[in-house]
Amino acid sequence: MALADTPDYAQFRAAFDVAQLDKEFVGSFEEGINACVECCDRYAGEGRTALYFEGADGSTRSVTFDELKSSSAQFANLLQAQGIGPGDCVAALLPRVPELLTVILGTFRAGAVYQALFTAFGPKAIQQRIHGSGAKLIVTDSDNRPKLNDVEACPPVVVSGHDVGPDDIDFAATLERQSDTFAPVLRHGDKLSMMLFTSGTTGAPKGVGVPLSALRANLMYMRYGLDLRPEDRFWNIADPGWAYGLYHGVVGPLLMGQANLFQETPFTVDETCDNILKHGITNLAGAPTAYRMMIAAGDIVPARLRGKLRVASSAGEPLNPEVVRWFAEQLDCPVKDQYGQTEIAMMLMNHHGLAHSERTGSAGLALPGFTLAVINKEGERVSVGKEGILAVVRSQSPLFFFPGYSGREGQDWVGDYYLTGDMVEQGQDGAFSFVGRSDDVITSAGYRIGPFDVESSLLEHPAVLESAVVGKPDEARGHIVKAFVVLVEGYKSNDELSEELRLHVRARLGAHAYPREITFVEHLPKTPSGKIQRFLLREQA
To answer: I want to staple 330 with a disulfide (CB 3.0 to 4.6 A). Which of 38, 302, 348, 391 is the partner?
Structure first.
């Protein structure tokens, strides 16, 4: 339920002016801006906390904006001593530790480009990405350093930790010798500040250069998508080695002068509950997988967390209606589905900070500053209620910042449209509902079936923890619906349960959409960011 003082979506959208938004930044996107100033320096001198850290060894630590201002200057000086200047790329293969913030902000301060690397990557994935970015330096820790031994043409390595090789640069010792002053390098808003790579669900990962102008969209999402307020304690549990965690778990909260929480260990339900209570988290962001694990844990989560969270948000995969109901009923907290891509950050959502009607199963409305459309394969708009590809109308989207994939900038458009590759329908209320990726939609006996609808129906059954649905080639029907199902602990796979699940979906969706085959699996193949890799399941079908 929206508060009485929550701005009306339609009115706010009609009045949105990017020039007014730009006044909230210290720098100018036209004359020069620095992301470290926007995310750190402007809040220094007030004693504000920028980070709460929960270490794997049980240690805890807090870091202020003042400390980050000093350490980022030291790291910028380290980069300068290594011959790295504005526009050069600096990669980091670091876990969620305070040193990561120093590297990110120091890279920003120097006018260089920060490249995120997920710590679960192996040597091949690392090599592919740093060669693709042209990184001139990579920062890692002692645990991840051995992976770089198998990376061809590896750039110089800075190591944080006690086990620093003779050919590497000692992060702590070298940082300590640097001056804690460094004048921030101002650059035009079109210049890059970050380099990311797509998750590679449908092909080889592609480089995405993120310009400084992306700060606009980040601020809008934090304020109106997540409704991050001064009195909130915020936690984005996504890993900053990927877009959502970096955009909106590091840059976003710092941009608003808010502290974030880094938990060094992998996600568990128990530690998540512990940290929510310990740090007084009121605004939580994560992925549907994490939320489904909280549901599967049983009554212990509501017993500990009911009434503690003000709002929660979900991204990465469509949010199942069952999760929405559970959060409302068991935690007394609204959780809202929100959508974005590495290429464009978050631009479609059910807004916490703007009041509008919400339709169950809908992904919501465009973030003000974006205009969206539904396009067919010929590049033409389709009518309301018809399936098509979700597209951004570039000329009507002042927050759109994607320059095109690295090496082919400006080539990834169809006229005035950027095509996301996701299939949607737009309802009479203006809201968009996902059908699936363009290559995920199943055509069976002439019917087009969206995998998300089937998956959501399966998840409404108490035995199902997770599910993924693909099309399996069939001589008679073209394709049949096949489901891969992970069961809740305590349930056993058997023919009787398979039939029960089939009938369960058939009763909800109809005879054309139920899974004719069900395979029970221990886990689903996913990208490190939590997205289901349906192309791998299609190979198994």
So the answer is: 302
What SS3 class is residue 415?
Answer: coil
Which single residue is written with the structure tokens 């929660």?
A: 312
Question: Range with the lowest mean pLDDT among 156-165, 311-320, 328-337?
Answer: 311-320
Hey, which residues does 483 pair with through a beta bridge? Answer: 469, 518
Q: Say if residues 173 and 154 touch (Cβ distance below 8 Å).
A: no
Give the number of C-alpha atoms closer than 13 A to the C-alpha of residue 256, restricted to the C-beta side. Answer: 27
Outline where DSSP puts E strands in 146-269: 157-160, 169-170, 192-197, 207-211, 234-236, 260-263
End-to-end CA gap in the chain: 42
Mean pLDDT of all residues in 409-421 = 83
Please choose, from the candidates 341, 374, 376, the residue with its C-alpha nearest in 3D space to the C-alpha of residue 201.
341
- Is residue 106 within 8 Å of 67, Cβ to Cβ? no
Could you give the C-alpha distances from 531 to 185, 299, 338, 407, 536, in angstroms and in order?
36, 27, 14, 26, 12
Distance CA 106, CA 182 (A): 9
Task: Indicate the residue type of 436.
Answer: G
How many angstroms separate the CA atoms of 121 and 327, rounded? 33
- Count of C-beta atoms within a 10 Å radius of residue 509: 18
370/214 Cα distance (integer angstroms)? 13
Name all domains of the chain by residue range, CATH numbers in brackets: 65-212 (3.40.50.980), 440-540 (3.30.300.30)
3-state helix, strand, coil in the chain (%, to 5): 30, 25, 45
Where does 284-414 have alpha helices with state H?
288-296, 300-305, 321-330
pTM, entire model: 0.85
430 vs 384: CA distance, rounded Å: 8
- pLDDT tens for 427-444 read 999 999 987 766 676 767
pLDDT band, residue 2 (cuts 50/70/90):
very low
Q: Would you list the DSSP string of 432-482?
A: EEEEEETTT-EEETTEEE-HHHHHHHHHTSTTEEEEEEEEEEETTTEEEEE
Q: Helix count (H) and strand count (E) of the chain?
A: 17, 25
User: pLDDT tens across 211-252, in order?
Assistant: 999 999 999 999 999 999 999 999 999 999 989 999 999 999
Residue 360 burial (C-beta neighbours within 10 Å; 0-12, 13-18, 19+): exposed
Q: Cα(144)–Cα(121) distance, rounded to whole angstroms?
A: 9
Alpha-carbon torsion (344, 349, 352, 353), positive or negative: positive
